[in-house]
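User: Fold this; tokens only.

Assistant: Input:
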Amino acid sequence: MSYTESWSGKINRKLLKKLHIIDVAAGREKADLVLKNATYVNVFSGELDTGDIAVAEGLIVGLGSYEGRDEVDMTGKIVCPGFIDAHIHLESSLVSPAEFARAVIPHGTTTVITDPHEITNVMGTDGIDYMLCATEGLPVDTQFMIPSCVPASALDESGANLDYRDIDSFFDHPRVLGLAEMMNFPGVISADSPTVAKIIASQAHHKKIDGHAPGLSGTDLNAYIAAGVYSDHECADIDDAMKKLKLGQFIMIREGTAARNLEALMPLIKSQKYFSRCMFCTDDKHPSDLLEKGHIDYICREAVAMGADPIMTVQVACLHAARYFLLNNRGAIAPGYLADFAIVEDLKDFHVVTVYKRGKRVYHDGIVEDFPLPEIPEHLNKRAHDTFHLPVLSPADFANTRLRGVIGMVPGQIITEDAGYAAGVDVSKDILKMAVVERHKNPRHIGIGYLKGYGLKSGAVATSVAHDSHNIICVGTSDEDMAFACLLYTSPSPRDA
């Protein structure tokens, strides 16, 4: 027989914790942890303050002079609130959520807001359930925005098609904060009822709606924001960002692996007028990028190197995202806030030496503390490992006999440009063939086009990690090479083919 805690039992349990917090804060009892002689970033005053930081029950309870059962000297270090990534697709890290947590903890990240539309495009609502389970209890708090556009557009063929009824129940989950990037801005602007219904569903639960509208302006932007979209992370230049900021949107300054907008948006961070409407995000962060450069600490380091005020930078890295998402007990070092700390050597290089999560040390001196792995139901694990359904492809499947459009890549951005037309591969002009192969339901649909700016001289590259529907995208110099590159994803396996 399972035990269900009574309401009065819950109140009494929480009362004992609260009384302990008050007694420690008042100096009547020793704290669980005290960071002694701390220099810390006060994100409310915009100053560096000094004093002891007392922790009890996973919360900061006092600043000043305290004694603790565990005392750690912070002399020569600077204590920052734990960093927050305002928008990321964990799947882009190409590792499990637990391994992602292990990778970002050394960089001072203690909270991320994720949009699991990658796995949801493949697995439907099972993908959301999988990610909720896979992130439960991790030492990096993982909050969720529920995918708004699965598939991303009516032109896409994904593994699922979700309407507001499919996602509505997820808004009741305690770690779900709202509706993720509304990529279908044409649907919003044209008042498409199924699209707008998802916004209404989120608002009915008093949740946030994040945006995704590169280059939108004028009455179209007015309509998009009027529908209830509060933020945007797709600003590639300052003009685009300012248009959205002046109409009330919060700007997520993105510096990830595929798209890097920090330098272009630096005027926002440098401005006392605008920086409070900004937060940092990575969107997509590949493992090599995480290991070689870092996470939010890297963005802080780059921003300061480009002339940003260090304390304003820290505010953008933690407080503003917490305020936007109504995570009212994090993002600052003050009584009543979570004891999430990123302890750095200075506010220039932002080299993280120690990290605390809810008052527990989770990283120190190059070592991440062990943590239990979340349990994932077997049916979700099985479903996640059976998502490719297509036959072995031949060179004839990639043949082309007519002019097709050429997509021009823009270095460091995910936006593209019109590069004209081509009827075949021309390596000398950096024109390669590109194919999109449906991999979910085996309809044998293959889209053919051309790509300029990739730089491949021979062979082919194929990937199934591809926003947003995660069909196979293959780029190559010949049909034979493209067919071979896709073998990994087909059935039978390459060993049997």
